[in-house]
Write a structure and sequence with these properties.
The complex is a heterotrimer.
Chain A: E1 2-7, E2 10-15, H1 22-29, E3 48-51, E4 54-57, E5 70-72, H2 85-92, H3 102-115, H4 121-127, H5 139-152
Parallel strand pairs in A: 1-5
Antiparallel strand pairs in A: 1-2, 3-4, 3-5
Helix pairs in contact in A: 2-5, 3-5
Chain B: H1 2-5, H2 9-16, H3 39-44, E1 59-65, E2 71-77, H4 79-82, E3 87-92, H5 93-96, E4 126-127, E5 133-139, H6 142-149, E6 153-158, H7 165-168, E7 184-190, H8 197-204, E8 208-220, E9 229-235, E10 240-245, H9 250-261, E11 268-271, H10 287-299, E12 303-306, H11 309-315, E13 319-331, E14 336-348, H12 357-361, E15 374-383, H13 397-415, H14 419-426, E16 435-436, E17 442-443, H15 448-459, H16 461-473, E18 478-488, H17 496-501, E19 510-516, E20 522-526, H18 535-547, E21 554-558, H19 575-601, E22 609-612, E23 615-618, E24 621-627, H20 628-637, E25 650-655, E26 664-674, E27 679-690, H21 697-716, E28 747-751, H22 769-786, H23 800-807, E29 816-818, E30 825-828, H24 833-845
Parallel strand pairs in B: 1-12, 8-30, 10-11, 14-15, 20-21, 27-28
Antiparallel strand pairs in B: 1-5, 2-4, 2-6, 3-5, 7-15, 8-13, 9-10, 9-12, 13-14, 16-17, 18-26, 19-20, 19-25, 22-23, 23-24, 26-27, 29-30
Chain C: E1 7-9, H1 14-24, E2 28-31, H2 37-42, E3 50-53, E4 63-66, E5 69-73, H3 78-83, H4 85-90, H5 92-98, H6 104-109, H7 112-118, H8 125-131, E6 135-140, E7 143-148, H9 149-152, E8 153-155, E9 158-159, E10 166-173, E11 179-186, E12 196-205, E13 208-217, H10 227-233, H11 239-246, H12 263-282
Helix pairs in contact in C: 10-11, 11-12
The chains are: A alpha+beta, B alpha+beta, C alpha+beta.
Chain lengths: 177, 846, 286
Amino acid sequence: MRVSMKVDGVTYEDEVEPRTLLTHHLRDGLGRVGTPIGCDTSNCGSCTVSIDGESVKSCSVLAVQAAGADITTIQGLAEGSEWHPVQKAFQQHHGLQCGYCTPGMIMASVDLLTRNPSPTEDEVRHGLEGNLCRCTGYQNIVKAVLSAASELRGEGPIAGSFRDADEPVPATSGASS
Amino acid sequence: MTEQLDAGLVAQEIAEHPDALSKPYAGGELGRGRRRKEDAKLVTGQTNWTDNITLPGLLHMTVLRSPMAHARILSVDVSAALEMPGVIAAYSGADLADVMGASMPCAWPVTPDMVSPVHTPLATDEVRYVGDGVAVVIARDRYAAADALEAIAVEYDQLPAVVDMEEALKPGAPLVHSEKGTNQCFVFDFPGAGADYAETVKNAGDDAVVVRRRFRQQRLIPTPMEPRGVVVAPIAAADEFTMWSTTQIPHILRIMLALTTGIPEHKLRVVAPDVGGGFGAKLNVYAEEILCLVVARKLGRPIKWTESRSENYQATTHGRDQIQDIEIACTKDGTLLGLKVELLADMGAYLQLITPGVPVLGAFMFPAIYKMPSYHFTCTGVFTTKTPTDAYRGAGRPEATYAIERIMDELAAELGRDPMELRRQNWIKHEEFPYEMVAGLTYDSGNYEAATDKAEQMFDMAGLKAERDRRRASKDPVQIGIGISTFTEMCGLAPSRVLGSLSYGAGGWESASVRMLPTGKVEVVSGATPHGQGHHTSWSQIVADSLGVPFEDVELVAGDTRSSHKGMDTYGSRSLVVGGVAIHKATGKVIEKAKRIAAHLLEANEDDVEFGGGTFSVKGSPEAKLTIQEVALATFAAHNLPDGMEPTLDSDYVSDPENFSYPHGTHLCAVEIDTETGFTKILKYVCVDDIGKIINPVIVEGQIHGGLAQGIAQALYEEAVYDAEGNLTTGSLVDYLVPAAPDLPHFDTGRTETPATSNPLGVKGVGEAGTIASTPAVMNAVVDAVRQYGVNDIDMPATPERVWRAINGEGSARATAGTVAYGGTSTGSTGGAAADEALDDNRSAL
Amino acid sequence: MIPAQFDYVAPTTLAEAIAALGAAGEDAKILAGGQSLIPVLRLRLAFPTTLIDLSRVSELRGVGEDGDVLVIGAMTKHSDVIEDPLVRQYAALLSEATSTVADPAVRHRGTFGGALAHADPAGDLAAVALALDAELVAEGPGGRRTIAAKDFFVDYLETSLSPDEILAAVRIPKLTGDWGVRYEKFNRVAQAWAIVGVATAVRTEGGSIAEARIGLTNMGSTPVRPHSVEAALVGASTREQVVAAAASAADGTNPPSDLGAKADYRQHLARVLTARAVSQAAGITS
């Protein structure tokens, strides 16, 4: 089937089999390999992208279902060389190690903050329940999302909790650790 | 001073572009919380995962896997698959028998008489676990390759599955490898370096208190977020190959591929590109690596195989899976007399790279931080028709730590003592280091008092105990339990001589090269292979501090046997302790040489030249100085070097550690247990880890957090379950419960710093500490909460159902007091019998 | 993993969808949100010849009112159900339970009707539909019919929809008056299926329970409505009375024994969680 979709600002039109998973179309068809695949059962969330402004797991969507959609992947999140505040916060708060879950985790976090600009720690944890990480124990991911939330609200990043931090960020909210 | 260098065009270029030459070193790199260099690509999706790699003409391989745990292969017919569109080739095991090598390697024959069965990449005669490879398909794309698997016809003659270790050892049990005549792989007996255990306990007579428990280390599935994958590109005409693999060990893999397939080592290049976590599951030589290689050689085409998560759960090694019979003895005043450990360790169907070595490595850790005169360890390896086990984060040490920390609590309960007080009584005092352990290791340093004091303070031990006791008294439906783990571990694998004495197939050194580039930048080549740890950042800090160059000016080259030509790779918390030390020493050699060049250029006596902050200066002549970058440029120009000196500022160092390192710490956990449902919630988790000197506290904290998550997951959530027919019933993330963010608590971390004395950086390693320490801390808390109901053990994971049944007298609660042969008091339990029964029932219901 | 081949049609009206279903034969499958179906296809546990994708049938989406009844299009996404003001006002239990389904990304694709038609007894929403006396509107070549929730769920993954019918909408009588709701979901990790779930809506008058509706998740091959508990709860005003009434919550149930839990533990949980859910819904704390 012929499908057209916009991915990270570029419109593509391709012939795909109906069974082609969106995630395979992005990776193998369009070369947008920034979005990885971590499972077969839609549990891990590594493949999370945004379709028409909503986070979805691209392994559980057929490419034909995304015909006409506007898709943003991790590769389209930054504005040119300016990272999205969530991307910056993940680095600043060491919210990643091996980085395999990170594209999905960041896309899920961006979606979460779109819907809830001032989440509590508990809301962040539950908001990311569909994304598994095996490296970080989630604590720094949660902190990164809270910090990005603060940044996006115009309140600046929250304080890092790390001793001897490289570039301490100003303490503007009551982060504790 | 730059004019003095006269390096011609390069100097002119640099003068016109001042940014090209490095800024001076700002200092303070060690211990600084640098944010990671690795992150830029990872947060923007510019990562080079193995499955991202594509090549012209690339073909895709899929593997047909056995649906049965044990069967004879009567026939494999691939002809229909070959007829399918886009299929290039399809091979059974028999088709590849002459090229795929005689057997995949096991590098650790733990005893001279270890039973080591043939393990071919595809089964040829029998399949021995669900997931064992039977045939492969090579097709134009991954969809066609997946379809063609359905067209392969295999006839099996089903044989009995062998699932339970104890059943497997009984006479007349069905055999996993019938030609071997036994399911017993080995018996490793280690009487320790102290007195005889039985004799010691007997001599104590009526003063001896003996406690026995049976603990189960359930089978775990490592689950790195990136499943495995392999790409092989051949240059057919030259019989040369490049392999990209999701591996922790490209260097070891290359050697093993050469030995297995007969392709000469120098014709193989192995690359670990960006690797999405390993946790031991990528510390191996896998069938698919060999298959991609031999098929690429056969077809002369590049081949890719990408593992699905379902495959990963069957075809990638599992971890743990031991039955631990533990007996501890002390005198009535609580002074330890000794420890006896009898393990059954499940090998699975075959021996992978270090399958038998994992439980044996634990032999040295059971006595942990405690002084005792006697120790006896025995481990029996057992074959079953299940996925092979191998290293999983901690590899042998979490099992040992769990057993000793759990039984110390049981001993305290038996004596009516406070569990921390009993530990304090028996642990090695700070002033007693270095200390020679009953298991034969010499611990160089440690300060258990300091870590414990700090942890108890952070934890509010007194307050939590008061609340626990209040809820007990009021019979609150939500009870509190407090758990302790005062752990140590051995890191920095390993002194080569020690590995040799344990019959391991290789050494434990690590290699480093440090290259100063003409513009003053630095490339550091490491034989350690990162897969998420942050080596690039940490290594940059070590080099920056040592050479006095800016952090930004250091680049890491690793994970490619062509550019990082020798190494022992990354596992066992060894990268910093062994690899980082090698880098540190290599920089020392660079400085030494640069100093001679600087002295020459400054026309000074070498003894008068001092180095600090990246600058060589002459004693007594403050103006006479050169930065190391200037020396690098002058060395490159080579216009004015001392006679006979090679014009390079590179150095190599291979470091073989003189001892293991021994991180330790105190972890404290408080849980709330909803006694009506059995649900356990972690109320508070505090850990104080002493990992010696810190290079980067941000990375350290991340490693601890991640380790805690995996250790807690073993205690509460994860278990690989097989049914009686040998089917993995937890075959996906739907049933194998990897915790997500809401399932884990906030961790309060602290540290003390007792430098290791066995290496110049004073570092100990941190990759596994959290995993090793946390499991017993959580389980001790769970048992503490329900001990009031007569419970003295609960099998892991402590599911709500198991906890509820234990509270209601259905399991784990039957401590049987009695006298054993040694005399004195003894208690034991079979531990979790009813819970096992429940599980067995589950199995038969499925 | 990768699905086997199938044909795909994406009708834009319900009539077209019914016609496509009829034309595609017995091995066709309806694709709603796909959050259960696509993983099943990937694991090659099902081999439909044709998928009929309803996502472009706009008439199947959205929440409306029909007098005293809330009408929810079968293709209304979980995330829209959660946020919908009418659902929040008149069927708050559905909103609460839906917010526990899977995770946010799955809720952006998964649909209310898809979840009900899938009829997984471990799914959270069937028990809610049962408790709220929902009616399911099915449409096929023979026209439209309405099926009571109690008659809709027939067995494990089996409904009373005939093969040529499509679930079009769900009609839920509005709850008006002083209703409190609670969906008590018990699982081992956040994204796991419920071991047991209890959906309750309770109307109180003057501090005591006047009316209770309860649906149990994963306590049998279909969702369970413990009518005896509902009856016993009337008049209850203390925690002790609620617990006493909830004691029969598992009577007559036949829950599965599987990896998640054994049957007797599920029955125990049903009693405990029913008491908790009802107490919370009714605001009874002691």
